[in-house]
Automatic annotation (TrEMBL):
It comes from the Eukaryota. Gene3D superfamilies: Transferase(Phosphotransferase) domain 1. Residues 220-238 have a biased composition (Gly residues). GO terms for molecular function: ATP binding; protein serine/threonine kinase activity. It comes from Arctia plantaginis. This is Protein kinase domain-containing protein. It holds the Pfam family Pkinase. Residues 194-244 are annotated as: Disordered. Residues 1-188 form the Protein kinase domain. GO terms for cellular component: cytoplasm; cytoskeleton; nucleus. Keywords: ATP-binding, Kinase, Nucleotide-binding, Serine/threonine-protein kinase, Transferase. Signal peptide: none annotated.
Length: 311
């Protein structure tokens, strides 16, 4: 879906609303409008009357980010012709392919291939020199490609940010930065928060109880604090195991858990482990708890009473 209403959030509006105004949005395969987007953030293919799609939103994003940095519109055209002049001044001449595809390209590019806002002078050697023009309000617009991104971004020296904006403002929509590629860009990657527990090693898999049937799996234990509990605090709550055949939890009540705990305490191989049944169940279920290590040893040695088959 294209979102032609993309523009910076105005002052006083909560930053929890980063995107507003979906009034002219449409699906790519169901284009309704030929003239969309606010002028400062309008993609060149829209102005030229060429086929457009989701890349127009990336163009708007680049304009928005630049404006959020400087506080001023990146391409402040006074009308559509002046808007194209601002784009050409920054990016240079549009590719011939885009000019040929646009139904309204002649409004901006002359039959000789020169931008209409410029004055063309032919020298004695046949070279054509383009001189910039003026907007209706007297703002100077330089010749194609005469303004650098550093100047347009008010002296910004962040090469990653400049590259990000430049890729968003690619003339050719097919070469323009995509949302997926933007998320992998160096400028955005270095500002993304690190995933939680990124440096912690993955927990080792817990051993299966030797006394359980072979058709039991270790991944169906109910989460810590509810069915299984955490550490030694869940012994009175019991827990459940899920079999791949029945797909129904097999529940053991508090008395069965107490009996299993007593059997484990009497076992010669238990090693005096004091971890609670809740922590043991959590260890088998992969959830973990405060006593997951001791709980794993306890669970491996404990012999649960016979549990009735699920109905």
């Amino acid at each position: 879906m294209t979102i032609p209403g993309l523009m910076p959030v105005t002052a006083g509006v909560s930053w929890n609303t980063p995107v507003i105004d979906f009034g002219s949005s449409c699906y790519e395969q169901q284009r309704v409008y030929t003239y969309i987007q606010s002028r400062f953030y309008r993609a060149p293919e829209v102005m030229m009357g060429a086929r457009y799609g989701m890349p127009i939103d990336m163009w708007s994003l680049g304009c928005i980010l630049a404006e959020l940095l400087t506080g001023f519109p990146l391409l402040p055209g006074e009308d559509e012709a002046d808007q194209m002049a601002c784009i050409i001044e920054l990016l240079g001449m549009p590719p011939q392919k885009l000019v040929e595809q646009g139904k309204r390209s002649k409004n901006f590019i002359s039959s000789k291939g020169n931008p209409r806002y410029c004055t063309a002078t032919t020298l004695a050697d046949g070279t054509t020199v383009l001189t910039g023009g003026m907007s209706r309000r007297g703002k100077p617009r330089g010749p194609p490609g005469s303004k650098s991104f550093v100047t347009a971004l008010k002296g910004c020296q962040d090469k990653f940010f400049i590259d990000f904006i430049r890729r968003c403002l690619e003339w050719d929509p097919e070469k323009r930065l995509t949302p997926a590629a933007a998320l992998r860009h160096a400028w955005l990657r270095r500002r993304l928060p690190r995933p939680p527990h990124d440096d912690e090693p993955a927990p080792a898999p817990m051993p299966l109880p030797h006394s359980l049937p072979a058709n039991h799996t270790s991944g169906g234990c109910v989460g810590s604090g509810t069915g299984a509990g955490a550490g030694g605090s869940g012994g009175a709550r019991g827990g459940s195991l899920r079999t791949p055949l029945a797909r129904t939890p097999v529940t053991f009540n508090a008395s069965q858990v107490a009996k299993a705990k007593l059997q484990a305490a009497l076992s010669e191989e238990s090693g005096g482990s004091s971890a609670g049944v809740g922590g043991a169940a959590a260890g088998v279920g992969g959830v973990g708890g405060a006593g997951s290590l001791g709980g794993a040893r306890y669970w491996a040695q404990a012999k649960l009473p016979h549990l009735p088959a699920p109905s």
